[in-house]
Design a protein that fits this description.
By secondary structure, this protein is α+β, with helices and mostly antiparallel strands. It has a single domain, classed as Cysteine proteinases (Cathepsin B, Chain A), CATH 3.90.70. The chain is 35% helix and 17% strand. Strands 1, 4, 5, 6, 7, 8, 9, 12, 13, 14 and 15 form an 11-stranded mixed β-sheet that branches. Strands 2-3 form a two-stranded antiparallel ribbon. The chain has a two-stranded antiparallel sheet with strand order 10-11. The chain is globular, with a radius of gyration of 23 Å. It starts with a helix and ends with a helix.
C-alpha cells in the first residue's frame, strides 16, 4: 500500500513537472509603440521596421513618434516598379520587402509621422493592397513588351494615380507639433542616420565575417548582409537587448509551432499537446548551423515575415524567449499576448533569416571584425 502511494505521488509530481502552463517573467522590455495591423497587405517589412524606428527615436531623443508605415511603402513601391522595368520583368514584383528597404526609403525620402501622411483604408477599417500590384504589373508588363499600340507609353505617369489612390499621395511638407517639416528635415529632427543600421545573418554558403548579397526573393534592392556564426547571431541579439537596443527581425513563421493564438513560437522535439490553452512545456530541438542551412536550401525556411524584437522573457523552467512585436493586431481572440510573440531561442536559431540593428549595439570586437 505504501509503495502504491509513493508511486502515485511520484506520478503526480511528474505530471506537475512536465504538464505546465507557460508562466513568463519579463527580463528585458524595451519601449515600443502599440501593436498595429498591416491589414490585407504584404507590408510587414515596413510595419516591423517602422516600429523599430519608433523605438530608436525614443532611445535617441526620448520622443514618442508614430511613424507612417505607408509613407515608406509608397516610396518603396516606386523603387520596386523601377527595378522591375529595368530588369525587363525578369524579377519578382510583389508587396514584400526587407528591413533595409525601410532604411533605404528613410535615406532617400525621409520620414513622415502617421498624422501627416494620407492613409488609405480600402474598406474604412483596414489597409487593403490586394489590387495594387496586379494593376501596376499590367502597366509595367505592357511597357516592357514595347508594344507600339500599348495603352501605357509612360509607365511612371500611369502607376502614380494607382499608388496615390490606394496608398496615399506623397507629401513634401507638413506640420507636426506646431512646426513645419519636410520628410528630410523631420528625419534630421529625429536624429535617425540611415548609415548607422546594419543587417546581419548566418549561413554556411558564404564566408563568416564577410558581407554579401543574400539571394532571397524579397531582396529586390540587393541589400548586403554581414555573415556571422550562428551562436554569434544569438549573442548579438541578446547583448543588444541588454544594452537597450531593439531589433528588426526577418523570420519564417510558417511552422505549425508558431502559435499566433497562444502568442508563442517554439521548436519542440515532439508534438506539443494542446488542450483548452493547456501546454506541456517541451524539450526543444538543438539547432546546428548545418541544420539551419539545410532548412534554408530546401525552402523550409523562407523570408516570409518581419517583426520587431523588443525584449526578453523567461519561462518557469529558465528557458529564454525573445519578445517579438507582430503586426497582425492585438485585440482579437485569435491573437495571444496582445499581439506579441514569445519566440524561443531554438526557433530563432533555425528560422531567422536576418536581423537589422544599430551598429552601436555591437561589441567593439565584432565591429572591428566586420570593419564597421
Amino acid at each position: 500500500m505504501k509503495q502504491n502511494i509513493i508511486r502515485l505521488l511520484f506520478l503526480l509530481f511528474s505530471i506537475s513537472l512536465f504538464a505546465q502552463e507557460y508562466q513568463f517573467k519579463t527580463i528585458i522590455d524595451i519601449e515600443t509603440s502599440e501593436v498595429k495591423s498591416q491589414g490585407y497587405t504584404g507590408t510587414c517589412w515596413s510595419f516591423a521596421t517602422s516600429s523599430f524606428l519608433e523605438s530608436e527615436i525614443f532611445r535617441i531623443t526620448g520622443k514618442q513618434v508614430d511613424v507612417s508605415e505607408m509613407f515608406l511603402v509608397r516610396n518603396t513601391y516606386d523603387q520596386k516598379a523601377w527595378n522591375y522595368v529595368m530588369r525587363q520583368g525578369k524579377t519578382q514584383l510583389s508587396e514584400g520587402g526587407l528591413a533595409h528597404d525601410v532604411i533605404n526609403a528613410v535615406a532617400d525620402f525621409g520620414i513622415a509621422p502617421q498624422i501627416a501622411f494620407t492613409d488609405i483604408y480600402g474598406n474604412g477599417t483596414t489597409y487593403n493592397h490586394n489590387d495594387v500590384i496586379p494593376k501596376i504589373k499590367k502597366i509595367l508588363d505592357a511597357y516592357i513588351k514595347n508594344d507600339i499600340n500599348s495603352e501605357y507609353p509612360n509607365w511612371k505617369e500611369e502607376i502614380t494615380p494607382i499608388l496615390d489612390k490606394q496608398i496615399g499621395k506623397n507629401i513634401s511638407k507638413f506640420q507636426y507639433e506646431n512646426e513645419y517639416f519636410t520628410p528630410y528635415s523631420f528625419r534630421e529632427h529625429l536624429k535617425i542616420i540611415p548609415e548607422n543600421y546594419v543587417s546581419i545573418t548566418s549561413f554556411l554558403h558564404e564566408k563568416y565575417f564577410s558581407s554579401f548579397v543574400l539571394n532571397i526573393p524579397d531582396n529586390f534592392s540587393n541589400g548586403n548582409f554581414y555573415n556571422v556564426p550562428l551562436d554569434m547571431l544569438v549573442n548579438i541579439t541578446t547583448a543588444s537587448l541588454k544594452k537597450g537596443y531593439s531589433i528588426s527581425l526577418d523570420v519564417d513563421v510558417s511552422e505549425k509551432t508558431f502559435y499566433t493564438k497562444k502568442g508563442i513560437a517554439i521548436l519542440p522535439q515532439e508534438s506539443v499537446i494542446k488542450d483548452k490553452g493547456f501546454f506541456i512545456i517541451p524539450t526543444e530541438i538543438e539547432v546546428t548551423a548545418k541544420m539551419r542551412q539545410t532548412e534554408f536550401e530546401n525552402f523550409n525556411t523562407t523570408d516570409d515575415h518581419l517583426m520587431h524584437i523588443t525584449g526578453l522573457v523567461q519561462d518557469q523552467n529558465g528557458n529564454s524567449y525573445y519578445k517579438v512585436k507582430n503586426s497582425w493586431g492585438g485585440n482579437s481572440k485569435r491573437i495571444g499576448n496582445n499581439g506579441f510573440i514569445y519566440m524561443s531561442i531554438p526557433y530563432f536559431k533555425l528560422k531567422t533569416i536576418s536581423i537589422l540593428l544599430h551598429k552601436d549595439a555591437l561589441d567593439k570586437e565584432i565591429k572591428k571584425t566586420l570593419n564597421l
